[in-house]
Amino acid sequence: MARAVRSLDAEVHVYDRRFELVFGEEWEAGGEGHGRVEARAGHLRVHSSDDDHLPSVRLEAWNAEPGTADPSWQQVGTATLETETGIVRLPDPVGAEEALFLIGPPLFEYRVEVYTKDAHLLLSRTGREKWLLRFWPVRDAYDPRRHLRPAPYTSDGSGIDDPGPGPVPFPVPVSEAAEWPAMRPHPLPQVVPASPDGHRIAEELNPERAHTTGSRNHLFTPALDAEPGTTCRVWQWVDADGDGPLGAMAAYRQVLAHDVVNRRIFVTALVTVLRRDGDWYDLRGAEPMEAARVLYAERAWQG
Q1: What does the alpha-carbon distance between residue 60 and residue 164 come to, in Å, rounded to a whole number?
Q2: Beta bridge partners of 274
Q3: Secondary structure of residue 54 in the 3-state scheme
Q4: Can you tell me the distance from the alpha carbon of 270 to that of 255, in angstroms, rounded to the nearest whole number?
Q5: What superfamily in CATH does domain 4-140 come from?
Q6: Where do the domains of the chain lie?
Q7: Which of 252, 260, 259 is nearest to 291 (CA)?
Q8: Residue 200 to residue 224: CA distance in whole angstroms
Q9: Residues 112, 31: contact at Cβ < 8 Å?
């Protein structure tokens, strides 16, 4: 049965008779749209009835295709999109930080339905449109030919290095959206405030409130560079006499080397990024469905 997982109420700035949500970079996979909606080049573009105003927008994340919205809403378009992180960004109407909204797990294909109220009537009475965007996951879109590929640069950064003929044809891990933390019930209220700094997203990516670790990116080897919602392998020197910065990262942890003189150990683990603030990261241990993709990529692409 379809269930609303979370929602967010916000404002957007309409310019040139449109507003946008960002779900990826321009070089990532796009999508397709119908009606007054376009999804391509990492942006979801919605065409408005007027220009230069601040409509109210309600974003909803569902675990499955929802039923028809309340009759007061008029559907004006649909779209298909794919996100690397499961997070969409809503630009701030005054140019401040963007609001973040978690629609579901990373590397999934999503559908979105877009509704509006009677735009002309609302504009004449309040000067504002009202919009409703409903997202739900369709399928696991992880493709080893496109995702988690080896870095395209040589170790010295001087040029492109061919990573090989392609991934080894091991069975590709396929998951259901319901398995992922982003789709699980959360003890916090369903309707959430806009949270530009990502603290709310971090809590929603960690519904069981597993132990987390915070660390500066330069303390990892190499320096960590990943976005919230993604899972990756990290390496770090930690104190051999205590838990150290990666003490909470028990998932798939291995000790690779011992520095006896300085009483340190070099460890690796699989972690999921919950929040990023400059060079600061909040992390938790990767869950099985998150780790499966990284482990598959490592096995498939190993030289």
Answers
A1: 41
A2: none
A3: coil
A4: 13
A5: Competence, DNA-entry nuclease inhibitor, ComJ (2.60.34.30)
A6: 4-140, 210-301
A7: 252
A8: 22
A9: no
SS3 200: helix
Q: What is the pLDDT confidence band of residue 213, given thresholds at 50, 70 and 90?
A: confident
Distance CA 300, CA 166 (A): 8
Other beta carbons less than 10 A from residue 295's beta carbon: 16
Nearest to 269 by CA among 286, 290, 281, 289: 286
- Higher pLDDT: 58 or 156? It is 58
Distance of CA 90 to the CA centre of its chain: 13
What is the C-alpha separation between 143 and 89, in angstroms, rounded? 24
Of 283, 272, 151, nearest to 216 by C-alpha is 283
* Alpha carbon distances (Å) from 28 to 42, 183, 231: 6, 23, 18
The rounded distance, in Å, linking the Cα atoms of 134 and 224 is 33
Structural contact between residues 18 and 45, judged by C-beta atoms closer than 8 angstroms? yes
CA distance linking residue 277 with residue 280, whole number of Å: 5
> In the structure encoding, which two tokens stand for residue 263, read together?
């009483």
Tell me the residue type at 229. Answer: G
End-to-end CA distance of the chain: 45
Question: Which of the four pLDDT bands, split at 50, 70 and 90, describes residue 169?
Answer: low
The DSSP output letter for 196 is T
More confident residue, 138 or 127: 138
Cβ-contact 105, 207 below 8 angstroms: no
Tokens of 227: 């976005």
Secondary structure class of 246 (helix, strand, coil): coil
Where are the strands (E) in the chain, listed by range? 4-11, 18-22, 32-35, 37-40, 43-47, 56-62, 74-83, 87-90, 99-102, 108-116, 130-140, 191-192, 212-216, 231-239, 254-259, 264-277, 280-285
Whether a cis peptide bond, with omega within 30° of 0, leads into 222 is: yes
